[in-house]
Amino acid sequence: MAKVKITETALRDSHQSLIATRMTTEEMLPILKEMDEVGYHSLEVWGGATFDACLRFLNEDPWVRLRKIREVAKNTNLQMLFRGQNILGYRHYSDDVVEYFVQKSIANGIDIIRIFDALNDARNLETAIKATNREHAQSGKGHVQVALSYTTGPIYTTDYYVNYTKQLVDMGVDSICIKDMAGLLKPYDAEVLVKAIKESFPTLPVELHTHYTAGLASMTTLKAIEAGCDIVDTAISPLALGTSQPATEPIVAALQGTPYDTGLDLVKLDKISKYFSTLREKYLASGLLNPKVLKVDANTLLYQVPGGMLSNLISQLAQMGKSDKLQECLEEVPRVRADAGYPPLVTPSSQIVGTQAVMNVIYGERYKSVTKEFKGMIKGEYGRPAVPIDPDFQKKILGDEQPITCRPADLLKPELEDLKKKVAPYAEQEEDVLSYALFEQVATKFFDARKAAKLNLDEGTADKQAKIHTV
Q1: Of 171, 240, 373, 446, which residue is least crowded by CB atoms under 10 Å?
Q2: The pTM is what?
Q3: Is 266 helix (H, G, I), strand (E, B) or coil?
Q4: H/E element holding 161?
Q5: What percentage of the chain has pLDDT greater than the value 90?
């Protein structure tokens, strides 16, 4: 057997799952050189919710973050999570915007683009896959990895995932990832699934991404490795377990001296662990790291709530003063999911289903109030669910509106040139149009603050209508 490779998630999904994506670039930079020297297969550093969090909460430019990381990490693949036609946002974007985002991601330092669709609708992956392969053909940079959004339900059999993998192989992927967002994949199910995929596609690299939420992740990772999994995602121990990934060091230690030996040095990993231990204590002391997300929650196997979704649910209910309703909301999630055609709970479907579940509980009546996003999901704006939605339920939610049956992006006109005109008053770099495209209001606010800081203006006392600023 080949040596197993490790993708380290501490700089992206680990802190997204544990502290709602609040790790700053300045907290990352001091340890990057050491991380780059470990010999990881890749560092997951970008994408997912990091883009939104940088602009919305951290007053950071996500493109600057990526460039700073690339400047230091010269030896290790940099990896991002890309939501297919949703890019990193919460709606579908036109093909020209998707293509430009792929181009700029690779130009700014990304090596591996892990692309997924929340509904496992391959139609929503076509543009991103083609764009990445085109960049690779032109520059030699860009690796297409497509993730199977793993979940359970009436249709999600091993054959379902093997057939989906065949679709992806035919579309030109370089590798696939079994993306187990909620930690639902059980050890022996992982063994069966990985074996089935490897038997059908022997030369296709397979990666496993799972979460420790239900307490299964280390066992699942080990069984997947024994079945032929090539790469596994882990998090350095201070930022592991709970709703995060299995810890890097124990996996490395467990495989030492076996045919799967990662070749990574535990002494080097210990230096990284010590650094992140300090950050962990800071996050705990500030309340940013809630102890609730650190415990094993076997109820995940019932409610299918991913780590990031769970931390957001806890935060959402706390802000509403309704923390006592958490259990009811968790019980409502699988019911809403069934109504919506059993979508895998991954961004954006996890947020859409989770928010609707909260509303059903808070209002005391199911679907008394329906979010625009949930209505869009039932309409087909996000794609085709694996299980057809009940027509009566669809009618209840949509009224007289007709559902969408084509690829949703086929209904979108090209947006990029119009977006470039709109962002022109703010733009300082080509990438700004993409920040604006994904998060218009948040990006505009960030652009104003960036300009004010550069010109030493006081935004708090500014009269924008009169165009008067104090310095």
Answers
A1: 171
A2: 0.92
A3: helix
A4: helix 158-171
A5: 85
